[in-house]
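hey all, quick one before standup. I had two proteins in the batch that finished overnight and I want to keep them in one place so we stop losing track of which output belongs to which input. First protein below, input sequence then structure tokens straight from the run.
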Amino acid sequence: MEVTVQASQLIERGDKSSRRVALAECDRDVAAASLVLRRSDILAASANAFRQSHG
């Protein structure tokens, strides 16, 4: 009987790991800023619609 087992793991060299983490954090920050802008757009549109309907 022969059994072969293989395991692999990514080993990042240099500062690749910290750069990858920094990029992910930037992506998160951009998404959060986009959410804030979208919320502001929705609030402004709601306020405008209210003003127009209550003229």
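OK second protein, same deal, sequence then tokens:
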Amino acid sequence: IRILLKKIFLQDTLDRYFDFRKVVVDMIANLYKEGREDLIPIAINLANEFFKLNGYDFEAITAKEVEKYYKEDAFIWSLYLNLRKVHRFILTKALFGRYEYILPGKIRR
């Protein structure tokens, strides 16, 4: 499972936290998870204005980009959690071992 996750998702997932623009997109996209879609247009406008006023030469963030980012992010983390549940099942039921981690319950998205 680790090899699969590393090969497919690790570098992209880590890279997005070292790119200021992507961090801002991530923060705005989290408003979907928090059930505050109404704040997304305001947050996009504030972010774009901040970039402009502070001399960042970034492409403007769009609502479509934020939605796409959120869907991709939700997929990655849902897949990761489900793979951890499979790992827990194999370890505890098939191999009769202990699973050392507590996994979260259902996450509303």
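Flagging for whoever picks this up: The chain has one domain: 2-94. The two ends are 24 Å apart (CA to CA).
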